[in-house]
Amino acid sequence: MFRIAVSCSRTHIGRMPKALSKLLWPTLLFILGAGASFLLCPIEQAAVNQQIIGYPDSVVPAYQLRPWLLSFILFIPFLASVIYRCCGTLDRYTLKTFLNSFAICFGALFIIMFLEDIQDNLSDFKESEDMLYLMGKHYLIKLPSLLVFILPYSLMLGLLWSLGKMSKDQEIVAMIQTGRSVTRIVGPLIGFGFLCTLMCMVFNYHWAPYADSQEKSILEQARGIEASEARHVAYQNNDDSRHWYVGAFPAEHDHGEPLKSVNITVMKDDSIVQRIITKNASWSVDARIWELETPLIHTIKEGNVTPVTHNENLTFDWPETPYQIINPGLKPPYLGIPGLTSWLANHRDHPLSDKRSYLTHWHYRIAHPFICMITIMLAAPLGIVFNRRGLGGGVAVAIFLCAGMIFCSTVFPTLGESGHLSPVLAAWATNIIFTLVALVLFHRRMTGQPIYQTLKNLLGN
Description:
By secondary structure, the protein is an alpha+beta fold. 66% of the residues lie in helices and 13% in strands. It is built from 16 helices and eight strands. It has helices spanning 2-54, 60-74, 76-86, 89-126, 131-168, 171-177, 182-185, 187-205, 207-222, 322-326, 337-347, 355-367, 371-383, 392-418, 423-446, 452-460, and strands at residues 228-236, 242-250, 259-268, 271-283, 290-292, 296-301, 304-309, 314-316. Strands 1, 2, 3, 4, 5, 6, 7 and 8 form an eight-stranded antiparallel β-sheet that branches. The protein is elongated and about 90 Å long. Mean pLDDT is 84; it is low at 1-16.
């Protein structure tokens, strides 16, 4: 009895570390996600509060969602680790094989893109005294945009590599002989693609477009040029009593930097009564007043123009803010969903902007992340091979389809912006077309019909 008890005790003790090891990665990732969320979310909330102060007409709930989405994306690795631990043995093996290939492909593409960007911009950074600071800032801000761009291609390459290897080793055939269908085998991979879709969707909500908008400003700052967020912006206030024309918006205008080369036309009863010209116009966040530097004011009365140059600065309590003035001049590719939503809510009938472009980009922000799911669905049937021809044919078809996706994702949004397609169709057309292609490929793979040879014969005829 004593020996049996000791043996059972030793067995129990030996099993404990293995059970605890299963919880090690989820626990560690949860702690890291919670710590990062604790540090970053208050910073994001402060940025949102600043945005709302400057844009009183913003769609506030769209901006207030940003800290919650940031927190969610920081917990995605924890969520993925929990799902991985809940999977069966074959599912974990499939995921592990894929993740090894995916990590190598993603790392290789990331390094290539990183080195290419450094080669293009290193000469600009060398001109700055704060070279290391600006480089760190540039690549930290650019990271979300880079991830969104690289992820679909990494998924396709990783999937072709891993499934091709499993097919060559007859592991796919062995799984099918256990009673699993092709769809069931690639099910965990589709789940991983769904997590990547969620990640890209969160980045597309704000951080990826913001990264694209800041790249030029940081490079201008490195070259010693005064960085500007927008140039040659026209704006008219709500009651049409003032028309603004701003030559340049400094990148730090939200921190008190003055607007440059400002021309303000004051209207009354559809007639011009004043034209104010100044080199610099500053707005105080606390006092909410405008200060114009030594303005030249042309007063127009009964057809007579009286110019007066003031030697001191003048203040005005106009309600418009720099954020509202710059908003019509911001380009749609540089706006996230909160910015696009606010623009459409406040400037849909603005005479100087085309709403079709903003509406197309709003839908495209939501549609584009699903490319990750579609890539998985395209690559899976091409990576699984049952004959002796090898993976070459599947890779060739995958490259052809990838080029088609890049072409369509460029052409269709352009057609939407020009009005030749509705914004919804322009944003989702690429997804619809290649989802149908993926379903056809899945059907042919599940029924054992050749894919590459059929396409080759079709093109040959």
